[in-house]
């Protein structure tokens, strides 16, 4: 009996039925996963709601990225400074001081040499349970152009970056991790590539472009000598120091990114990315992922819209105190990757409005 069943399975007809069954099961699984993890609808009013500086007297509101007038010629407001630095932080009281010293030292020194170089630093406290915002506020008393925004609840790294970007005034917008893993002066490398892509100085903020600090960027032999202590070199060297399990998870994640989302950028997770104001106003309002995989959705959309995205090798060192939980964070990121591919591939805009609202597309309509 079992022999007959086995022979039937391996016939053309049997294989066809098995394939249909597997595909149906896979699609059903994706639909179930999508239903269980809905994307929160994005409302324009959310992005235009005022945000105020933490413990500022008098109360000071942040500059808005988006224009309030839907009929305005541009979707973004005019820039108020050359560079905005967005730093998401959660429970970083012990580490953020070192990062801010590195950041402020570079920016203050450059501003002294070049009066046209204006900047702001916005630390977005993502619902910390320690005294991170108070530490930042204390540092701001002796540093220039440093402000803190405190979120009422934890939104995830992606959510904190998104809110910070929507409340900044820079012609260029850089987000950087609070751990200080990347040497801040390497901003000049990203800036140089951005100017090259945008056609040189003066920088045109209406030109859509993204530059990513990368651990895997291809460089010339001369560049490799210059950046021999880059994140790329250290990432490869640190494989031997990681557990076998964590190494498998790392490579598995990069494989999933390539298969389901981004293929032009090798390192999507480096927390050192530079945007022009125009592309920030286009891509950040439609982001849905608020946790660790938000970088992938961001670059995925840029690829789909044919926005120039460049990689630049930066110096990097591993810092203790990572907020990533080795198993659950990677599992969550893998789930988000698959949902990015699934939801954008099936082109949700063609799905009936009821299903769109459940999944959560960005809309200008007022909430009901």
UniProtKB/TrEMBL annotation:
<feature type="transmembrane region" description="Helical">
    <location>
        <begin position="12"/>
        <end position="33"/>
    </location>
</feature>
<keyword id="KW-0328">Glycosyltransferase</keyword>
<keyword id="KW-1133">Transmembrane helix</keyword>
<dbReference type="InterPro" id="IPR035518">
    <property type="entry name" value="DPG_synthase"/>
</dbReference>
<keyword id="KW-0472">Membrane</keyword>
<keyword id="KW-0808">Transferase</keyword>
<dbReference type="GO" id="GO:0006487">
    <property type="term" value="P:protein N-linked glycosylation"/>
</dbReference>
<keyword id="KW-0256">Endoplasmic reticulum</keyword>
<dbReference type="GO" id="GO:0005789">
    <property type="term" value="C:endoplasmic reticulum membrane"/>
</dbReference>
<comment type="pathway">
    <text>Protein modification; protein glycosylation.</text>
</comment>
<feature type="domain" description="Glycosyltransferase 2-like">
    <location>
        <begin position="84"/>
        <end position="195"/>
    </location>
</feature>
<comment type="similarity">
    <text>Belongs to the glycosyltransferase 2 family.</text>
</comment>
<dbReference type="GO" id="GO:0004581">
    <property type="term" value="F:dolichyl-phosphate beta-glucosyltransferase activity"/>
</dbReference>
<keyword id="KW-0735">Signal-anchor</keyword>
<dbReference type="Pfam" id="PF00535">
    <property type="entry name" value="Glycos_transf_2"/>
</dbReference>
<dbReference type="InterPro" id="IPR029044">
    <property type="entry name" value="Nucleotide-diphossugar_trans"/>
</dbReference>
<protein>
    <recommendedName>
        <fullName>dolichyl-phosphate beta-glucosyltransferase</fullName>
        <ecNumber>2.4.1.117</ecNumber>
    </recommendedName>
</protein>
<dbReference type="InterPro" id="IPR001173">
    <property type="entry name" value="Glyco_trans_2-like"/>
</dbReference>
<keyword id="KW-0812">Transmembrane</keyword>
